[in-house]
Design goal:
By secondary structure, the chain is mainly beta. The chain has 6 helices and 43 strands.
Length: 735
């Protein structure tokens, strides 16, 4: 912390320094129709400066560097614009440019891969993007649901698995860093993701970065990063309301029918956002209720999200955010048996529930120090609490309250025309008070730097290093070095090649070290000797965008090698008379694989996209397939705009049968049919109707059928995955 304070003070002393800057104002229109474009994201390449065009297509960016500047503009449904302009000292320069509509947006702007704005083709690692429109159309009520449609990604009970980096560890210890507008949101005790707290209605897009990301993001980014970027209010303002309701169909087997009527699910979101000159306001909230397709699995949750922005001066701005979520859910752990897959064991108390609350607040201070340098400071505090209770009486033996505080200061500087340097320092503290883990404190201090050098117009070289020092209470400290190198080369206008290598690590969580709890039939014991796990991630890839005749398409191919060391896994000793689990460093593993994604627009209004990931996850200690991993992950979607009235979409997801789970759990035989697992074939379908096509009402209706064929499979052991559901969603939006 003292080094962080010193860093901030040194930087703050330079704020008053004079710098040569200018102002860039512009007007953006559609190249084919001439209409003004609203909501275009405009950025100055190599800096953190940017703006969003208003309803008249106008934007204004202050404090831009003098000399040559590169303007990058992006908007869903349009080709990315990239233009070079020259700005003189104190000049107020006006520019006008157009953007070309595109059936396939072949370029996107991302900000998470290098902690600054870049075209996705300039990034040396694989990045997938999920847009707000995808969330809306799929009736996404929790962010983790949307990740199941990203190539190379699976999710098992809150645990994100990017290219095989994670198996199943009872939801403890995420190997994927999760960010909301740059703020890390992993719990202080379990180090896991609380997806119910994420404000779905406010997410503009998600960036999924595949491969080790610890060089910039530290612990938790061993397998990758999921970064959510929320919407920015506009001067026109927006009021939106979404409501949905639906049913789970009854199962085909009479033994599985735990009720006579179809279980219901329903919910609603409301969001208001507007910019008032220098002040911007964003407020949203919602409620969810799910009766579930299984007995003793009903849950209700509510959430609230706020974000305020204030332009303090031409050189400084501030954003504040806060979020709160509360969930009460019946404590379903595993099934009674396969013949009764929708019922918990008879020993489960039907009155027992799990209550969890999450509260977070953070501030982002953005300061322009000079025409080439900017500073961002982000402090955030995140509190999570869970407790079991029966008849509203809390069970003292199973509760935990965790505080996670994180503060980061980041400098982005264009040192010379071809060189951008990103540096920062971070301090984090996790403070836990728990009947399960005791009273524990974990500290992590970090410093990082990354340079991006562009010696040629078509070549970008990236190199970075992060240093992390982790200390948990009275245990020995651990020092981690996470280097990263990468290169991208745009060999032609259509073809971009990339290669990267990086190290990732994850410090053991307090839960993994200190857990002392009974989880169903298992007794989890503490292990104070746990060491950090690490990875080396290598990737070579290529991206091609072009057309065959009048058919536009794009293809992306990546070949990767993830080397995993000291993996922390829950170990159940074979031959034990009791089900005692302990987290241990037990695995040295290698995951070799390839990933191919593609999109094509076959005709006007008819598009296809697909993503196929093939992997060989290998445990090098046991010389066997790595447990709880898939070899094949395949996702495809077809969309057809039938007319101005209707859109039809079909999606298919395939996961091959998990080859291997923990044999000791099978031998122990405390959970009947724990080895029951099959390949997964999930078909979703939806019909979208925009009422604005024939009325003045800004209403969109979506009829969603999830798991349309009612296919039965498991995502984690002894847990039936969601069965077929039919949901009608209505969204109304006023601007």
């Amino acid at each position: 912390m003292k080094y962080l304070v010193a860093f901030i003070l040194v930087v703050a002393a330079t704020i008053g320094a004079h710098a040569d800057t200018g102002v860039l104002s512009g007007l953006i229109s559609d190249r084919t129709t001439g209409s003004m474009l609203m909501g275009v994201t405009v950025r100055i390449d190599g800096t953190q400066s940017g703006a969003i065009s208003d309803k008249n297509g106008k934007f204004r960016i202050k404090n831009i560097p003098t000399g040559k500047v590169v303007v990058v503009a992006s908007l869903v449904g349009y080709e990315m614009y990239r233009g070079t302009f020259y700005v003189r000292e104190n000049e107020n320069k006006d520019i006008v440019f157009t953007m070309m509509p595109s059936a396939i947006q072949t370029q996107d702007v991302v900000i998470s891969a290098s902690k600054r704005v870049q075209a996705v083709q300039d990034v040396p690692v694989s990045v997938s993007i999920v847009k707000a429109e995808d969330l809306q159309q799929r009736n996404i009520t929790r962010i983790d649901e949307s990740l199941k449609y990203v190539s190379g990604v699976t999710v098992a009970r809150d645990q994100i698995n990017i290219r095989g980096s994670s198996g199943f560890a009872f939801g403890v210890g995420s190997r994927t860093m999760v960010l909301l507008d740059g703020f890390p949101l992993l719990s202080g005790d379990n180090g896991d993701v609380k997806f119910d707290v994420m404000p779905v209605a406010d997410v503009e897009r998600m960036e999924v970065i595949k491969g080790a990301g610890s060089a910039l993001y530290g612990t938790g980014a061993l397998g990758g990063v999921v970064s959510m970027i929320t919407k920015e209010p506009t001067a026109a303002g927006e009021l939106s309301l979404r409501t949905y309701g639906g049913l789970y169909t009854l199962p085909r087997y009479d033994e599985w029918q735990y009720r006579q009527t179809m279980p219901a699910q329903w919910g609603a979101d409301v969001r208001y956002a507007r910019k008032f000159q220098d002040l911007s306001v964003n407020i949203s909230g919602g409620i969810r209720n799910d009766d579930s397709y299984r007995s003793f699995d009903q849950g209700t949750r509510g959430f609230l999200y706020t974000k305020f922005g204030y332009q303090i001066s031409e050189n400084a701005s501030m954003k504040l955010f806060g979020l709160y979520a509360n969930e009460e859910k019946q404590n379903y752990i595993y099934w009674e048996s396969l013949p009764r897959a929708t019922f918990p064991p008879p020993s489960q108390n039907p009155s027992e529930k799990l209550r969890s609350t999450k509260l977070a607040a953070g501030v982002e201070w953005f300061q322009v120090l000079s025409s080439t340098t900017s500073l961002i400071i982000r402090p955030v505090i995140y509190r999570t609490r869970y407790e079991n209770f029966i008849d509203n009486v809390v069970l003292d033996s199973n509760s935990s309250t965790a505080w996670s505080g994180n503060i980061e200061a980041q400098l982005t500087s264009r040192l010379a025309e071809p060189l951008v340097l990103t540096t920062g320092i971070v301090a984090r503290a996790n403070v836990v008070s728990s009947t399960v883990y005791g009273s524990q404190i974990q500290y992590i201090g970090s410093g990082y730097g990354q340079a991006e050098y562009t010696p040629l117009d078509r070549l970008i070289i990236t190199a970075g290093l992060r240093i992390d020092l982790e200390q948990t209470k009275t245990l020995s400290s651990e020092l981690e070095l996470s280097p990263k190198v990468g290169v991208t080369w745009k060999s032609t206008d259509a073809l971009t090649m990339r290669a990267s290598a990086g190290r990732g690590f994850r410090a053991p969580t307090i839960a993994e070290r200190y857990a002392n709890i009974r989880y169903g039939p298992f007794l989890v014991e503490q292990n104070l000797g746990l060491r950090s796990e690490s990875s080396l991630s290598f990737e070579v890839g290529a991206h091609y965008s072009g057309s065959s005749g009048s058919v536009p398409f794009e293809l992306d191919l990546a070949v990767f090698d993830n080397e995993l060391y000291n993996l922390i896994e829950p170990l159940l000793p074979c031959g034990s008379l009791s089900a005692q689990i302990q987290f241990q460093n037990i695995t040295r593993a290698r995951i070799l694989g390839a990933e191919l994604t593609g999109r094509v627009m076959l005709a006007k209004g008819l598009g296809l996209e697909t993503g196929l990931t093939a992997m060989l996850p290998r445990d090098l200690i046991e010389q066997a397939t790595l447990k709880y991993r898939n070899n094949i992950i395949w996702y495809s979607r077809a969309s057809w705009t039938v007319s101005k009235l209707f859109d039809v979409q079909m999606e298919y997801r395939f996961l091959n049968r998990v080859e291997r789970i923990d044999q000791c759990i099978i031998d122990l035989n405390v959970i009947p049919n724990v080895d029951a697992r099959v390949p997964a074939h999930i078909v979703d379908a939806r019909l979208i109707h925009d009422m604005r096509s024939w009325t003045s009402l800004p209403i969109r209706l979506t009829l969603n059928a999830k798991n349309l064929l009612d296919y039965y499979y498991t995502e984690i052991i002894a847990n039936l995955a969601p069965t077929r559901s039919i949901v009608l969603q209505a969204e109304i939006k006023f601007q």
